[in-house]
Amino acid sequence: MPIKAILTDIEGTTSAVSFVYDVLFPFAASRLPGFLREHQAAPTVAAQIEAVRAEAGEPSADLDQVIEILLGWMREDRKVTPLKALQGQIWQKGYESGELKGHVYPDAVAALKQWHAKGYRLYVYSSGSIQAQKLIFGCSEAGDLTGLFSGYFDTTSGGKRDGESYRVIASAIDVAPQQVLFLSDVTAELDAAREAGMATCGLAREGELEADHPVVASFDRIDVAAY
């Protein structure tokens, strides 16, 4: 069955891991306390503060405790939905002010544009929030790339190492798993996508990727028609 849709990871795949860890995470961590104190009454922020209390099992935590919980999760690189949502809101302000520009590899930009022009439907699946995904591509160094994508998925669809998440996504986009090509730099994610029936391709941007999947060093090495 020919590939109809391409589902891509971000960190280490379309974008440098260093951008996330050396730019985005420190930016969010340094601004999180002030952001929460200033915007705690805003509905979108208040809802996430409550979600942090629920996730941490600390229903009576005050704001200072919530901030410490969130900073701890950041240090541990926890893939927790309320943390990702709040990071996304902080990053949005950074992108809007021009302090942040999303990093996307030039080869990824070129391939995504070519695939879109050829009629492939493009989707993103990242542990970062959907808001954060749109910001990276919408405010990228290469300009606004959001018009290339038909949809975005995050941890609200399930964990990236769980095969069921990929079946959920295939159902949501109404494409048979066998007609979806998933791109990632993480072997466990590639394994989960294959378990769900998807075609897979690993990205080894920095060093090697030990995986029982096709592996390439850049997007210009991916021949979608060969799948």
Blueprint (SSEs and pairs):
Elements: E1 5-8, H1 17-39, H2 43-56, H3 63-76, H4 81-97, H5 106-117, E2 121-125, H6 130-138, E3 149-153, H7 163-173, E4 180-184, H8 187-195, E5 199-203, E6 215-216
Parallel strand pairs: 1-2, 1-4, 2-3, 4-5, 5-6
Helix pairs in contact: 1-3, 1-4, 2-3, 2-4, 4-6, 7-8
Q: Tell me what portion of residues adopts beta-strand conformation.
A: 5-15%
- Overall residue-averaged pLDDT value: 95
The residue ranges in which pLDDT falls below 50 over 5 or more consecutive positions are: none
Q: How many DSSP helices?
A: 8
In CATH terms, the superfamily of the largest domain is HAD superfamily/HAD-like
Using the coordinates above, name the CATH class of the largest domain: Alpha Beta
Helicity, as a percent range: 40-55%
Describe the protein:
This protein has 227 residues and is α/β, with parallel strands linked by helices. It folds into two domains: 5-16 and 103-226, Rossmann fold (3-Layer(aba) Sandwich), CATH 3.40.50.1000; 20-97, Orthogonal Bundle (Transcription Termination Factor Rho, Rna-binding Domain, Chain A, Domain 1). The chain contains eight helices and six strands. The chain has helices at residues 17-39, 43-56, 63-76, 81-97, 106-117, 130-138, 163-173, 187-195, and strands spanning 5-8, 121-125, 149-153, 180-184, 199-203, 215-216. It has a six-stranded parallel β-sheet with strand order 3-2-1-4-5-6, with helices on both faces. Helix 8 (187-195) links the parallel strand 4 (180-184) and strand 5 (199-203). It is globular and about 55 Å long. The model has no long low-confidence stretch (mean pLDDT 95).
